[in-house]
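Reply to dn_fold:

You asked what the input looked like. This is it:
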Amino acid sequence: MHSVDCTASPIRPDGAHPQRCEAKDKGASFRKQTFTYKVAQDCEIKADVYRKADRVVRPAIFYIHGGALIVGNRRAVAADQLQRYIDAGYAVISVDYRLAPETKLKGIIEDIQDAYAWVRSKGAELFQIDPERIAVVGHSAGGYLTLMTGFCVSPRPRALVSFYGYGDIAGAWYSRPDPFYNQEPQVSQEEAYRTVGQKAISDPPDESNRGLFYLYCRQKGLWPKEVAGYDPDTQPKAFDPYCPVRNVSRHYPSTMLLHGDKDTDVPFEQSVLMEKEFQRHGVKHEFIAVPNGEHGFDGIEGGLRNPPTARIFDRVIAFLNQHTR
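and this is what came back:
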């Protein structure tokens, strides 16, 4: 069988999973391949493809990692969830993208668009996927980027699954000092900026401690300025192209939202607002509200070994099957 080795991640802001997973071939119920799908600003941007070791043409999950658009990489996909997707018959393409603040949001979205276009144009040849049967799945900031693909890529995905994502990046929750994060020791501007640089990066080393920059942004209410490069108070319209909640239409893909109602990082209200827009425009959707669920609820208390989490994931697989088969 194929094994997946996981090591603990030292920082876990905004949906970065507590495990970082690397597949190792031990003769092989599935295989892993790594590709460079793009080079930008001298930064090689990569994707890992996981699928059963056969030639069967499979539907694809385009997977987007979390980490506040500041930390994380393509390897931050939970091992048990990866195995479930593969057992259900999917190929999983987990992509990197350039990170903020070195790259602003416009460039990050361009990376997602280019990665999606690459999967559609090259996926059939390189890793035997059906480019007409792609679903997008993401967690936290990856959930936000998943919701962005509902209107910023073409043709649109068959379905979206957003785990504790968000549709409004200019709201007070991100643009004002956050009470929860201000319970932590204060991070100075100098300390925060020591953890980031000037050169574009998509796969930071574990020891970079970039999570301190995220903590600084939340404590000061600076995330929209530092990541998007705009001031939501003086440039509110600049955020229109980057807020999924402002871009829902009847053409939006079928979407599943999952969110814990005790989330202290991304407010539960963010998924509530998206559901209201789906209802207003007649978009097919499901909303799984997790009672007492924390941020990253699917990766704690044993992950899919936890029966309530396993039942939720059964619904995720059923939703994906409904829209990709």
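Confidence is low (pLDDT under 50) at residues 1-28.
Hope that clears it up.
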